[in-house]
Specification:
Strand content: over 45%
Order of helices and strands: EEEEEEEE
CATH architecture: Sandwich
Distance between the termini: 16 Å
Number of strands: 8
Largest sheet: 4 strands, mixed
Amino acid sequence: MTITHGSANAAVRRLCVRPGSTVTVVLEPRPKGSWPAPHASSPMLATITSTATGQDGASRVTLRAARTGSVTITWGTTGAPVFTLQLDVAAYPVQ
């Protein structure tokens, strides 16, 4: 699954996936410089498997949902994140 985030989008996005799912977050270039490194609130629930920044300034981050639960992935400091992905990992489909 791939989601794209740009400066015009909301600063927080919520997503629900199953364990074992891979999520790629494409962050469009920022007018105020490069994207900060991502941090997972619980690396046991979601692992950041790769990060890359293209020549155009876009950043790609790949996450793997490891276990059921809720995890927050933030770009920037915890107190003032630039972007936050709330990832819920559920054992069954959630609407």
